[in-house]
Amino acid sequence: MDFSMTPGTFLFEAWQARFSLLNGLSVTIGSSAITIVLATLLGILVGITLAYGWWPLRLLARLYVDFMRGIPVLVLILFTYYGLALFGINVPAFWAGVIALSAFATAHVAENLRGAVQSVPAGQMEAAKSIGLRFDQRLRYVIIPQAFRRMLPPWVNTGLEVVKGTTLLSVIGVVELLLASQQVMARNYLIIDFYLLAGAMYLAVNFALAQLGGMLERRFSYLRY
Amino acid sequence: MINYHFDWSVIARNMDRFLAALGLGLGLAVISLAIGCVLGLAVAYARVSPRRWLSGPAWFYVELIRCMPLLLLIFFIYFGLPEFGIYFMDKTQSFVLTLSLYAAAYMSEVFRAGLASIPKQYVEAAKAIGMRPWQRQRYVVLPVMFRITLPAISNNLISLFKDTSLAAAIAVPELTFLARQVNANTFRVMEVWLTASAMYLATAYLLATLLRLVERRYASIR
């Protein structure tokens, strides 16, 4: 690698491409953040349905989760991208991708929440019932706080999967970090250098996210039974 | 959806291609898992080794691969290796190489956990009856470890099978690539993607059921 600042060297080209790369990085981070928030909210709903729902609803949730986990994310993304238009919903590729990724991550969060909630000893639920708490109070004050610590590590893993999954949005033409890097490479043919740069950026984002997860885990390590 | 008329004849006409593409994806997953298991076992032994010059690089390799998007790895190996003068691979071989390296990182974590979960007494007993180090591994540690890790191995096979869909990005003619092609040629959006989804789902489900049978067969000796 040549480190001088003349046209055709890595540093020069990277500096020239700084805005498109940073733009790609922001799209990657933005889509990941939206997906993680959506998937967490919906996943909590679906997960609670899986654990406590009325049985037809529970069956539906179970079918949804198993479907989502059996289909590759890329197929989901392509299906959503081409399929939504048929319903008369004309969304940009970015939103089609975010919807597909959220649908996928929702299933993972839901399954993870179900596991965590069911791993709380049954006596806790019974005790909460016997002191007369309503269902929402039992969840809010007794079950969720105890399940929270259990679901934290897999939740962080789902977050990492989502960040890595956003690369698939490049397939439907969303200019996120990977596609932005490839566009830069198409201009200057510095293939190795820019793939390594993109890799380092993903590594940085994922590493930061994993550290954040570790911090959360330590912060909530007192929640134990 | 109001004005959409289903026309499944497109799918029926292309069914042989769909099945061949599905078979290719399954084959890619199985080969990559096999290579990944061998590599992963080596990496797992390197990671539990007391020698820092072995465990350090192994740790770095696993963490690096696990933090990288698979699609980036696929592109890096497909477009990047020729820059280093490695020309002999076609796109399918290049994809198998990528998926194997990817699988190796994940399998090594599985095997590392498996190695750690083997009771010390097993190895001590093997020592006591005078087995050599490699005999202890071959006849005591590895058979037990494979039984313990079998469920995790089958999970990995299923997720590798789903990951073969990414081969579409470098035009390996597996199911997702074919579905995109047929979709572009015929515009039968719903039929094509429903078929592809159903095929992935059915195969994943079948694999899971089959592997559970295998697990039950071998779980008896613990």
UniProtKB/TrEMBL annotation, chain A:
Cellular component GO terms, alphabetical: ATP-binding cassette (ABC) transporter complex
ABC transmembrane type-1 domain location: 25-213
Bilayer-crossing regions: 29-55, 67-87, 93-110, 194-216
Membrane topology label: Multi-pass membrane protein
GO biological process, one term: amino acid transport
SUPFAM superfamilies: MetI-like (SSF161098)
Signal peptide: none
Sections of the chain in a coiled coil: none
Alphabetized GO MF terms: transmembrane transporter activity
Compartmental location: Cell inner membrane; Cell membrane
Keywords: Amino-acid transport, Cell membrane, Membrane, Transmembrane, Transmembrane helix, Transport
Statement: the UniProt record of this protein carries the keyword Disulfide bond: no
Pfam family membership, one: BPD_transp_1
Entry similarity comment: Belongs to the binding-protein-dependent transport system permease family. HisMQ subfamily.
Protein name per the record: ABC transporter permease
Organism of derivation: Teichococcus deserti
